[in-house]
Amino acid sequence: MIPQKSKARAAYNDAAFRMLGTMLTLKRVLDVKTPFDFCNALYSGRMVFLGEGNLSFAYAVASRLGGRASRVIATTFEEGAVHDDETQANATKLRSLGAKVRFGVDAGRCDSEFLLGSVDLAVFQFPNVGSRRPLFRRNPNHILVKRFLKSVRNVLSKNGRVAITVVNSSHYDGAFAMDEVAAKSGFEKPVAHPFIMEDFSGYSYRKTKLDGKPAIENDDEFVTFVFKPKVLRS
Ligand SMILES: C[S@@+](CC[C@H](N)C(=O)[O-])C[C@H]1O[C@@H](n2cnc3c(N)ncnc32)[C@H](O)[C@@H]1O
């Protein structure tokens, strides 16, 4: 006869296993197999980068754009004075391609930073406020993305889109709630593409300062959510 305690443990293990299964399946199922083509999303307007950390992603993309690199505006949240040598060097390299670099830009205030209707692609890689304290009872990163989408919507061009890359895990999917945030900010359900870090030579992900835990592990998968504004019908 199986002792009561062992039965309870087996039941607990079963429940834990089922919960793990649910968590594993909760990560975002990709809508397409191909990574998002950042360079192809530039038409005649601007490509803007928000929350760039050390500017290495903006530089990796801009260096593939040839003459169109002059239409890049790369921004960091932090003011220029706090940036280290690597970031300053990337700023210099971006400027030498003809791109613009701006410091101290809040992604939630895009409408006061960029011209109305001027942005073909707005990019925010791994948005993270570096705090877990809820804001309005929501994860603060959900609020950051919502502020970003609401403000950037006004400056998008006719074919303008927004690309946001995050870790693809049940934890992040729950925290960001991208479909919900899109619906509340006037966007269609975002299309989920795989993001392959190694495709961008020189890109060195920078974690948010003050955020105790590294947000990225070696075996993490990443997903780029591509948002298109809903067309208003009269
Ligand atoms: C995890 S880091 C990623 C940095 C960079 N995008 C990368 O991929 O290496 C998150 C970034 O979000 C920025 N951030 C936080 N709040 C922001 C805001 N309101 N507007 C713009 N950037 C913000 C931080 O300064 C930090 O650089």
Keywords:
seven-stranded mixed sheet, binds S-adenosylmethionine, Rossmann fold, alpha/beta, globular, single chain, 234 residues, 29% helix
Account of the protein in words:
The chain has about 230 residues and is of the alpha/beta class. The chain has helices spanning about 5-25, 55-60, 85-95, 140-155, 170-175, 180-185; strands at about 45-50, 70-75, 100, 120-125, 155-165, 190-195, 220-225. Strand 2, helix 3 and strand 3 (about 100) form a beta-alpha-beta unit. Helix 2 (about 55-60) runs parallel beside helix 3 (about 85-95) and helix 4 (about 140-155) runs parallel beside helix 6. The mean pLDDT is about 90. Bound molecules: S-adenosylmethionine (SAM). The site of S-adenosylmethionine has 21 residues, from loops.
Brief overview:
The protein has one domain (27-227): Vaccinia Virus protein VP39 (Rossmann fold, 3-Layer(aba) Sandwich). It contains six helices and seven strands, in the order αβαβαββαβααββ.
